[in-house]
Amino acid sequence: MSPPYQTMDALEILELYFIENRARLLDIASFLDRIDRYEGAEAARRDYRYTAFQSAVDLLKSGAAGRTAAIQTIFSDPTTEPLESAVGLKAFGAWKGEA
Questions:
Q1: Which of 21, 71, 77, 95 is 20 to 30 A from 12, comparing alpha carbons?
Q2: Angle between helical axes of 67-75 and 48-62 (0-180°, round to 10)
Q3: Contact, 41 vs 64, CB < 8 A?
């Protein structure tokens, strides 16, 4: 029995997914441009979320293998001790670091 999908090569993947990922890059560029245009841009660039985002973009540009896992790690909390309680906490999408 054959799988319900067909194996693609790299060029076929590029052909199939290029436009949607081009749109994602334009969304990212728009996000960064919006930060640059508004008052408080310098403070925003020092924010831990922005610096994590920039680190992820740099890693993406590097061409290194394993970018997905490495980028996920950039945004993740590396601690292993559980919190006593998460009541009242919310997710920010990036780890702020030690308080």
A1: 71
A2: 170
A3: no
Domain extent listing, the chain: 10-75
Give CB contacts under 8 A, 24+ apart, made by 57-65.
57/28
Q: Looking up tokens 């403070």, which residue turns up?
A: 43
> What CA–CA distance (Å, rounded) separates 8 from 14?
10
* Long-range contacts formed by 70-77: CB under 8 A, 24+ apart: none
The tens-digit pLDDT sequence of the chain (99 residues) is 466 778 999 999 999 999 999 999 999 999 999 999 999 999 999 999 999 999 999 999 999 999 999 999 999 988 888 888 888 887 888 888 865
Nearest alpha carbon to residue 47 among 87, 17, 24, 55: 55
